[in-house]
Structure formats: C-alpha cells, structure tokens
Amino acid sequence: MEELLRGWDGESVVMRYDRPTDSFIFIAIHDRTLGMAVGGCRLSSYASPTDGLRDALRLSRAMTLKWAAIDFPFGGGQAVLACRPPPTGAVREGLLRRFGETVQSLGGNYGTGVDLGTTSADMDVVGETTRWVFGRSPERGGAGNPGPWTALGVLSGIRAACTQVFGTAELGGRRVLVQGMGKVGSPLAHRLAEVGAVLMVTDAIPQRAEAVARATGAELVAPEDTYRTPCDVLAPCAIGGILNERSVAQLQCRIVAGSANNQLEADADADRLHDRGILYAPDFVINAGGAIALGGLEVLRWTTEQVEQRVQQIGNTLAEILADSVRAEESPLYEANRRAERVIEATRLKGEGAAS
Ligand code: PHE
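A: This is the predicted complex of the input protein with phenylalanine.
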C-alpha cells in the first residue's frame, strides 16, 4: 500500500475500516485545482484491499481528467468500498450510511455519486448521512441514474469515431460489440439497435447479456470471445484495464469507443492500439455524459435540454481530438491529456479553485 500511495500523483487518501461488514472504504482525492473533488462510489469485491485502493487511485485521476475535459468546476476524486461479497439489505444500508458519515467528515472536499456496483437507491441511503452526494433518486431531489446520459454521450462519440475511420457517422449496418450490460452498456445497446447497428452484446453474467439480446435482437458473444470477435466498433462498458498487451494483440475491430473508466491498463496500451491502426476514443472524453448530467442538473441548475445539448457535444470534442491526433500521428490519448492539462494549468495560474 505504501508503494502504491507514494507512486500516485494525487493529494490525499482517506481510509476507513468498517468492522460490521469487514469492508475497506477508500476515498482518493486526486486534484482540487478546479473545485471540490467529485467522483463516484464503486462497490465491488477485490482480491485484496490493496487492489481496491489501486482502483480508487486510478479512478480518481480519471475523474480529474474528465472534469477538466468538459471544463466543469470540479476536481477528481473517487470512493471504493471493497467488500467481499457486496452486502445487501440492511447490512448494505449500514455500510452506506457509515460511508456517508465519512464523506460528510471531509466537509465538502469530496462529493460522491453512483458508479459500478452502486445505484441511485444506494445514493439515497448515503444521502441520509451526508449532503455531498450526487445521483440520488428524483424523489429525493437528485438527478437519478446518470447511465442513460453517459450512453448518449458514448453514442455521439461512436459517431465521431466512425466519421474519422469510415467517413460517415451512419451506424446502420455498422457492427458494434458492447461489453457489459450494466447501467451504461444496456441503454447504449438499445440506442444502437434503434439506429440499425448490427449489435453484439456480452457480459460476464450471461443472463444479463441474454436479457438485452432478447429485447434488442442482438447477437450474443461469449465473454471469452470478446476481444477476438470481428467488429467495426468495440464498446467497453464494463470494468477497467481491459486494454492490455494480451487483448490488444487479439482485437479485430477498427475502433474502441466505450464508457468504462480506465480502459487502458497503461498508457503504453494506447500506443499499441495506435500501432495496430485501431482508433481509441479516450475514455474520460467519451464517457463524460454522466458527469455532465450530474454536475449540470444538480449544481449548475441546467435544464435537461441544456444537458442533452452539452452531452451531444462530446462527439464534436472527440472529433477535434481525433483530427489533431491524426496530424500528430499519435494516439488520441495524448491530445486528450494535453487538453485536460491545459484547463487545469490555466485555472492554477489564475489562482482559482478550492485547493488550499
Ligand atoms: N461514476 C460515473 C462516472 O464516472 C458517474 C459520476 C460522475 C458519478 C460524476 C459522480 C460524479 O462518470
């Protein structure tokens, strides 16, 4: 753990051991130059608490880049609840309330929200003990599940990527494989089916993929075949780290464009994709729709029309990044990183933001 923390470039990490559930709560605050750290709460089982911490550290960094990429007044942070197995019922609620207390104790330095393994209903419970929570259900005054907004942004990003690679944004007949039928993958699959894409779906839990396949007419792909299945677009909407030396060597797609955070195991994997001629849509750019919705609706008081417009702009932003990266003859990751860093640097120079 010591090595992980020292090797990380963020501000601080708060850890709480939760005796009743034998869980570890990690809150990583990566960078508050643009404002309070805001990022989701992931609830998952990890092989070890250290793996949970590692996930929190990387996800908090992705949030810093995501907020900067959309130029919203928030910094990067992330919570991970590492529990084996994920609790349910009253036990889960107890853990969520104690997590909320921990968030509240940070006095507005970190705000939480939904992420893999948590729902708006969970955020309602978290909200019983802290005011710093995003994505509660509409009945409790929140913006609800941001997943469909993230999916909308990913769709606009897929169109931009297709325009770059195939010269058209038309998705009719385009072969798209969506990995992960969760809060984003499932609405994305439905939208793709609606616009006539040749849809393929996969999920580590076969029933989840089967349900979406039945509803959309999608073809089922076995999890172990995901990376070697020929397609135009692979849309990773499940866990992180799926793009690595082994998987990239197998890929038979032209584009990787999906919602999962931290799709690359390491930045070098962006170069591997580039060398294979596969266009990679930087995850923190294409998956910002949920952040736009939560920040826009709950803090900036935007209407849903304003949110929709802003989410649709993700495609334009990505198109610019892709065009610049073609000129620079390098992976789009680097242009996306530079853009985000410029936003943070400009704010740092102005001496604004909440960091102190
Ligand atoms: N965790 C989701 C994401 O990475 C949604 C979210 C965004 C939650 C912003 C909190 C804050 O986009």
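The longest strand covers residues 23-31. The two ends are 26 Å apart (CA to CA).
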